[in-house]
Amino acid sequence: MRIGILGAGQLGRMLTLDGMRLGHEFSLYDPAGKASAGVGTIYNDPDGQHLATFLNETDVVTYEFEHLPLDLVNRIATEKPVHPVPRALQCCQNRTLEKALFRDLGINTAPFEVVESAEALQAATQRLGGRVVAKSATDGYDGKGQAVLDTPEQAPQAWPRLGCDTAIAESFVPFRRELSIVAARGQDGEMAFYPLAENIHHQGILRFSIAPAPHVTPELEDQAQRMIRTLMNELGYVGVLALEMFETEEGLVANEMAPRVHNSGHWSQNGAVTSQFENHIRAVSGLPLGETAALQPTCMINLIGETGPVAEILRLPYTHLHLYGKAGRSGRKVGHINILADSLEELRWRAMNTASLLPECPEFDWRP
Amino acid sequence: MRIGILGAGQLGRMLTLDGMRLGHEFSLYDPAGKASAGVGTIYNDPDGQHLATFLNETDVVTYEFEHLPLDLVNRIATEKPVHPVPRALQCCQNRTLEKALFRDLGINTAPFEVVESAEALQAATQRLGGRVVAKSATDGYDGKGQAVLDTPEQAPQAWPRLGCDTAIAESFVPFRRELSIVAARGQDGEMAFYPLAENIHHQGILRFSIAPAPHVTPELEDQAQRMIRTLMNELGYVGVLALEMFETEEGLVANEMAPRVHNSGHWSQNGAVTSQFENHIRAVSGLPLGETAALQPTCMINLIGETGPVAEILRLPYTHLHLYGKAGRSGRKVGHINILADSLEELRWRAMNTASLLPECPEFDWRP
């Protein structure tokens, strides 16, 4: 079977590296013409000249990136099976739809209003009360297109910074920590859930994920699984889905979802029985899902801007390096390291030590 | 760094899949024109037309296959660094040189004589006494080019079956089991040793490897490490080397070596901290070696002839599937399965169950 992937960055690369072991072949199609995956048959195709060739040779199409032209994906879906379903893409491209989906499915999310002007943002902030986070309805990722308002009067300054026509104003969630759940759903409706990950951001970019997240009660795990199960069943989802959540005094609050393999699931490459990449490929190619249990406590550290001292990293006996073959550039994800340990305390020391070697990496001051 | 691999079969494929994670790029050059790797930049080049291009783009050259034209490899070595050293290739292409190397280095091996005719084979069998195994000096693998003689009088029938001008006649070793050791040596002389594997053949082809092999005393492990360390140091070896051995009442007897990643090391992909493939690439690219410790008892099962029922295999929560993207054909290695378990007893049941699903797979009647 030849699997087509829309998008050809590091996620497409890692999907291909794991998917080839299942005997599949891969074609990666990048409508932005910025392919970096370096594996599979690559179509760098900003002009759409190679779309027919790509579709002709693929048996099924998936994607590694949610900011794809929706009309392109819908068009492809008339010719080939597309997993996950394009509606998932549509919801994830637009926070208005995504928040409405959460609300309609009874998934706990922060109170919100849709706003289309500075005045509307000010009024919404007044109504919501307290601190408000404003987010561009489209195109936001890695903390871009966001503003925090402590008072309604900050709306006139905040609005132009969002750079959009439509935004979501939502109550700030006083959270203990950010958690995420990654799950897979097969073509027969079978589901598999990875243990929750605890995520630490710095300057709006994910830096560290610890999985399985410690201090997750069975109730919390169950709440997370119910939320993502509800989403996957509603969407008739096939593939890997990620859901970012806030942990609060009253349980979990859903923040946003990603219809693809997710940075907070990279730990599974070394820390789980089956990686999220393999499970995504198993799902979209109609194979049974693999075991998602964790092998050991794992910490994923993103390499941002540059790869750092590769030989020094590899000399540590507990590191697993994953480089993306991309040139270094400030703020760019160029790789990650998975660190395993027998205990959380040992994991903490190993991650601190590894982080201290890396340029542009914040201190790892996490405690289990 | 772009690494060139001579040979483009499943070993080149798995070297590439693991090596890309270290940020390297790969070109695979097949002088036999039978590339099946399906990854990296492939040169299917029986006429030698693309050799210059291949060499021009690669920084270092390694190989996945020992039956390469030696003059080709020597020529390449005048232009680019070749790891492992071509002398290793030369020794492994010729049992006469290989046995002499073992003997000269004091590595315990079965008594042998070089023979070049049926008469010489008969006389050597007489002198060696007891059962004798005759092996073609060159081109033998997977049990081909071999004959067993119980009496000297069988030489006239045995000789033509070897199909060669020069052969080795060696005393049959009454062994308990076949073991192998896989080790890596870096460019700075650093070495790393995998735990020994126990190997089970059927019809001359490796079917099962169990690692770490049970009932390996520290003395046995030490003897294996001393043998392979001696070989690597003598050769100035860089990369992964495998040594097949017989376990006897009196300890280990070296059988043959392979200057490359080895089928009996495939278990390390899922069962060890660092796979043999990653360690080979680390070594030839001048990086520090990775930890070789086993994570869990592991059994590797080769898929011979056809892949079998892929979905059924993947439904078992303890299997890791590795397919080579090759068409099925009787006797051909098309993939393997790594099975992990917490205990040897559980491993045995899991391997028995998995083997029972596979076509052309002998029963797994091993006991720890």
TrEMBL record, chains A, B:
Transmembrane segments: none annotated. ATP binds at residues 95, 135, 140-146, 170-173, 178, 201, 255-256. GO terms for biological process: 'de novo' IMP biosynthetic process. It holds the Pfam family RS_preATP-grasp-like. It is an enzyme of class 6 (ligase). It comes from the Bacteria. It catalyses: 5-amino-1-(5-phospho-beta-D-ribosyl)imidazole + hydrogencarbonate + ATP = 5-carboxyamino-1-(5-phospho-D-ribosyl)imidazole + ADP + phosphate + 2 H(+). GO terms for cellular component: cytosol. Coiled coil: none annotated. InterPro entries: ATP-grasp, ATP-grasp_carboxylate-amine, ATP_grasp_subdomain_1, D-isomer_DH_CS1, PreATP-grasp_dom_sf, PurK, PurK_C, PurT/PurK_preATP-grasp. Keywords: ATP-binding, Ligase, Nucleotide-binding, Purine biosynthesis. Its EC number is 6.3.4.18. NCBIfam families: PRK06019.1-5, purK. Homodimer. This is N5-carboxyaminoimidazole ribonucleotide synthase.
